[in-house]
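Memo to structure team: turn this sequence into structure tokens by end of day. - J.P.
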Amino acid sequence: MVDDELKELSKEIIRNEADEKVMIALDYFDASINRLCAFVTGVRSMHKALLCALLQPYAEMKKLQEEGNFTKVLYMHERVKFLPIADVWDEYLRRQGLFEDWYDEVEKFEKEVIAKRV
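Reply from structure team:
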């Protein structure tokens, strides 16, 4: 799930230009739910958090901060909070040939493959 902690971690990675240095490992094991669903949800949550961080104008805000223009930094922080992240995410998926409504595919896999393992 995209929570505040994941968003802040992603911001830290992007703000410090460490996206090519940091190795991100995800662990979404929960025996009470479908592991494929947990995996897809987890990976997409990480991608969404990174997308949110990438949409932040860090270079401009850093410049403003160095200039002592803290009022505009505050303004920009508040402004980006309501960016249409979902629209950007949907467009990203469309361009990648992916889809947001993937749950039906997971259910189908669960019935056709996982159920036969028992």
